[in-house]
């Protein structure tokens, strides 16, 4: 007879398909009837720069002496047509993040930190504030579908113009700013009623396609007397064609933003399932420039998941001229800081995972318009932290470049890299480590 | 500022022939004009559909263009009065801040797109997306307008003496739309609204600015505006997202 009480039981097993997060999302959806909106970029693991390694110097390559032999980092953006190109001391820029999604103090801190390191910041969907203009020595003014706050005076006081076609977090999607963040100041800058949930258009209102964009760029150049570099920013989706078409449209600089790239607020499903990883986009964008004979003539800025100097060096080695950072810059300012752990928990999240930026209740005072929360962020101290962080990224990038024997970070090249995985080898078009195998090499990119 | 489409007394005329001189020189010369310039009247000949003619002006001057213009004529205009004796291409007066633009022919798509202020008068028809994302401009179209006009229009007025195409005022915010003729269909969240005395006065003011007050019967116009039901993301609005 079987003793039913003594049958060994299997361990409770959660489904890999229906994991904890998935179950919680189904419950959330069932309770609300509306999609989940959050900030940040793709959170799942995708092939990334971590899947690449530098080879360093060896018998046939000579390294440079750290601290003694120069390894330059300066970058000039906009050499194609602009009378006044942007001259950066480091190959790392601050990506466009809107006033509205970020507090005025956060924008000021970004300006302070970037300026201290000789690099640029970028406005965002919501217009230019005096704080960020005042604190940014080089400011890129975004030209977005919504055209919130767009005006010729700000266009003329910008140092460059970035026509935003898309973002990596949401290629094909528009913007969102929920009512909690539409304060009087934000509403006035956007010509909208206070407190509404605001959508930004996903398409530009007065041009569609590259032929129109060419005419649009001509107009922007005419208005600004051909002085300012004009960037075109695309979300990584079809980077080969998008880059080629941006060049055809007359861009000075192409910005390609991968799916890990952050956003202020977008549907979770959009963030995780639309667009391709940064790693997969860089080589295609570079190939387009090379095929057109425009590599280094039209500069390429890459963003989406850049965290350390190795990421910077890898993006440059694959052919980018510079990188842009969003999320990491916010973390340097103080986003998701463990010192606010209790408060993140009170919001149903935790330090390091907090992404309800759209709700405007950020304990760190960054993704909020609440005056009391915002006051927690000291723009001077936060700016200093950002400057420190940028300095570290630069030093790290130089460290790697010197180890590869390069006197300028732009001399890094794909030949300095190998891949740890077959996926990364195929995407980055570099050999799998320890082999000479580049998957798909003869099949074209 | 009082705007009128009646000819303004000119203090001498500067003539610029685009068949002989490059557009860059024209725009460059116009951008250099200061508020107290004596060169207050410019005549542009042979535009031949060129793009960005008289874009980015910021001085109280009059620029009269004899012939058709391409895209973005008088784009981002401030203060200036730009008159087009012909048809205008896509995005005439896009993002205008102030001033006056008068198209004596038809206008293509996205006329007055995203414009924050000033007055745009189109004697003929305007195509699709007239007044898209407008942010405070006043637009008066004497003919008809195409589909998706006033899409996401945020502020300002759009007055149409003729008919409006499909999906007028889709996802409208606070712009006010006045249409005398028929409307093929209304877009999401756009509804007909009561024409009260203040609206008749507002419409009269816009017609007067366009120089046609008294030529049309205000009682023939209907007013359209936002139902404001899409102002918050809500499960009840799912079919509209
Ligand atoms: C809070 C926040 C706001 C953003 N706002 C904008 C914006 O207004 N316009 C834009 O083009 N991109 C915007 N982005 C995307 C960034 O410009 C950039 O593409 C992205 O952050 C880069 O990826 P990373 O966050 O992994 O560094 C935003 C990103 C964040 C995190």
UniProtKB/TrEMBL annotation, chain A:
Entry-linked InterPro entries: Aldolase_TIM, GltB, GltB_archl_type, Glu_synthdom
Highest taxon in the source lineage: Bacteria
Gene3D superfamilies attached to this UniProt entry: Aldolase class I (3.20.20.70)
Residue ranges annotated for the Glutamate synthase domain, each copy included: 77-334, 358-406
Pfam families reported in the protein's UniProt record: Glu_synthase (PF01645)
Alphabetical UniProt keywords: Oxidoreductase
Homology family: Belongs to the glutamate synthase family.
Record-given protein name: FMN-binding glutamate synthase family protein
UniProtKB/TrEMBL annotation, chain B:
Domain of life: Bacteria
Database matches in InterPro entries: Glu_synth_asu_C_sf, Glu_synth_lsu_3
UniProt cross-references to SUPFAM superfamilies, sorted A to Z: Alpha subunit of glutamate synthase, C-terminal domain
Protein name stated in the entry: Protein glxC
Source organism of this protein record: Ancylobacter koreensis
Phylogenetic classification of the source organism: Bacteria, Pseudomonadati, Pseudomonadota, Alphaproteobacteria, Hyphomicrobiales
């Amino acid at each position: 007879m079987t003793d039913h009480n003594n049958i060994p039981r299997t361990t409770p097993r959660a489904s890999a398909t229906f994991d904890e997060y998935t179950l919680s999302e189904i419950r959330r959806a069932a309770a609300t009837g509306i999609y989940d909106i959050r900030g940040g970029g793709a959170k799942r693991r995708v092939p990334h720069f971590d899947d690449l390694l530098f080879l360093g110097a060896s018998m046939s390559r000579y390294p440079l002496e750290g601290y003694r032999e120069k390894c330059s980092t300066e970058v000039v953006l906009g050499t194609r047509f602009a009378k006044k190109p942007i001259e950066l001391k480091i190959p790392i820029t601050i990506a466009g993040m809107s006033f509205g999604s970020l507090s005025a103090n956060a924008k000021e801190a970004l300006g302070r930190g970037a300026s201290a390191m000789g690099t640029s910041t970028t406005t965002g969907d919501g217009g230019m504030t005096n704080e960020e203009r005042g604190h940014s020595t080089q400011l890129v003014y975004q030209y977005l579908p919504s055209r919130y706050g767009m005006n010729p005076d700000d266009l003329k006081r910008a140092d460059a113009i970035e026509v935003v076609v898309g973002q990596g977090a949401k290629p094909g999607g528009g913007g969102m700013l929920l009512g909690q963040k539409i304060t009087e100041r934000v509403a006035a800058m956007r010509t909208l009623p206070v407190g509404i949930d605001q959508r930004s258009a996903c398409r530009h209102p007065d041009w569609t396609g590259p032929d129109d964009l060419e005419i649009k760029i001509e107009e922007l150049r005419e208005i600004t007397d051909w002085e300012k570099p004009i960037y075109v920013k695309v979300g990584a989706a079809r980077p080969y064609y998008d880059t080629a078409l941006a060049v055809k449209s007359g861009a000075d600089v192409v910005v390609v933003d991968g799916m890990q790239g952050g956003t202020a607020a977008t549907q979770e499903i959009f963030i995780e399932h639309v667009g391709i990883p940064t790693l997969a986009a860089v080589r295609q964008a570079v190939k387009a420039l090379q095929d057109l004979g425009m590599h280094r003539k039209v500069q390429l800025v890459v963003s989406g998941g850049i965290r350390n100097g190795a990421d910077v060096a890898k993006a440059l080695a694959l052919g980018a001229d510079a990188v842009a950072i969003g999320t990491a810059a916010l973390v340097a300012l103080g986003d998701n800081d463990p010192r606010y752990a209790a408060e993140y928990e009170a919001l149903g999240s935790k330090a390091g995972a907090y992404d309800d930026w759209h709700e405007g209740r950020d304990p760190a005072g960054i993704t909020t318009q609440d005056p009391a929360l915002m006051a927690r962020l000291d723009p001077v101290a936060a700016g200093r932290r950002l400057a420190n962080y940028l300095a570290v990224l630069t030093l790290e990038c130089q460290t790697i470049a010197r180890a590869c024997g390069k006197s300028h970070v732009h001399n890094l090249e794909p030949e300095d890299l190998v891949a740890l995985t077959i996926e990364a080898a195929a995407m980055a078009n570099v050999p799998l480590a320890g082999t000479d195998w580049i998957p798909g090499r003869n099949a074209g990119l | 500022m009082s705007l009128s489409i009646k000819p303004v007394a000119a203090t001498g005329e500067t003539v610029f022939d685009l068949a002989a001189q490059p557009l860059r020189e024209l725009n460059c010369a116009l951008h250099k004009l200061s508020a107290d310039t004596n060169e207050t009247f410019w005549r542009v000949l042979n535009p031949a559909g060129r793009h960005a003619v008289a874009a980015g002006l910021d001085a109280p001057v009059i620029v009269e263009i004899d012939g058709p213009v391409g895209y973005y004529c008088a784009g981002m205009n401030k203060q200036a009065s730009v008159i087009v004796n012909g048809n205008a291409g896509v995005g005439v007066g896009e993002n205008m801040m102030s001033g006056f633009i008068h198209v004596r022919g038809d206008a293509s798509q996205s006329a007055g797109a995203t414009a924050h202020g000033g007055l745009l008068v189109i004697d003929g028809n305007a195509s699709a997306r007239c007044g898209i994302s407008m942010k405070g401009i006043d637009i008066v179209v004497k003919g008809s307008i195409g589909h998706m006009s006033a899409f996401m229009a945020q502020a300002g007025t759009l007055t149409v003496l003729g008919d409006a195409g499909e999906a007028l005022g889709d996802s409208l915010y606070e712009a006010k739309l006045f249409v005398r003729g028929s409307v093929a269909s209304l877009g999401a969240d756009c509804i007909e609204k009561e024409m009260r005395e203040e609206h008749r006065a507002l419409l009269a003011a816009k017609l007067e600015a366009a120089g046609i007050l008294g030529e049309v019967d205000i009682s023939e116009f209907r007013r359209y505006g936002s139902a404001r039901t899409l102002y918050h993301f809500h499960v009840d609005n799912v079919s509209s997202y």
